[in-house]
Fold this protein.
Amino acid sequence: MAHESAAGSGSGGPSGPVVHGFPHIETVRASITALYRRLSYDGIQGYATSVLPVDVAFADHDDLHLGAQRVARALVQHLHLPDARMIVGFREMQHAASVELAAGPEYFIELNDRFRRHRRDIGAALAHEITHVLLHRLGLAFPGTRDNEILTDTATTYLGAGWLLLDAFREDGVSSQKLGYLTPEEFGYVLAKRAAVFGEDPSPWFTSPQAYPAYRTGQARARLDAEQPPLAAAGWVGRRRYAKDRRGAREGVRAALGMPYSFEGEGASLRVCFPCPTCGQRNRVGVRGRVRVRCGVCGAVLTCDT
């Protein structure tokens, strides 16, 4: 079974100019939740250190095939795939790369011929393809090409190799390049989610001038997740809206349109359902003032003012 990564050509990929913003944010969040459910909190902790630039560096004087094998081997080890031997080749193709998801133990990756000239991005392309192998072995997939590619980009990034994908984003007045299906800001969002868990700052590794602003934009969006009611860190506007919706729920009006939380039950059994800011798992807690709840998926302890 072959898998081809459709996003990632020059000039912003096959669909034209680079898309910005957060059009895939809900699928990204679902991908993070799926990772925690499949790997568990302890499994995620095994990826606490990102792959380092020195491990995936590719100089112009390096032998193309030996260098690609070396980088692939480093990414295999980082993603905890010790049994998977990657054979990397190059050919003319429409897509950025493809990987043969056979039974193994050898996996065949083909990269677009343009990477012969753009060697600094080989690590990014390989990171995405090798994550496909990891997810294939884990039996973790979303239905449909689009959502499955978003899952792969998110997993690559959250597990410590996707900063390479954001660093492959470059844009100026006449040309642009981006690898992967996520927007640059969505890559920044996932990197910020990872940084919040592991206390890691990926920004010193960026070589692309456009990577850092995209990271900061994603970081700001990720920060908002931890500032939504009923979380105690919610701002005044959010708390006021929450109080209004809570009154409505007690009076039998269930809708909290456009808000991340919802209410269930009634009277003394009224509960609020809201997403964990770390993994996205929806938690339920009784509406009874200030409480602490432990997320059932990632174990995060959440202080709530319900």
Notes: Residues 211 and 248 are 43 Å apart (CA to CA).
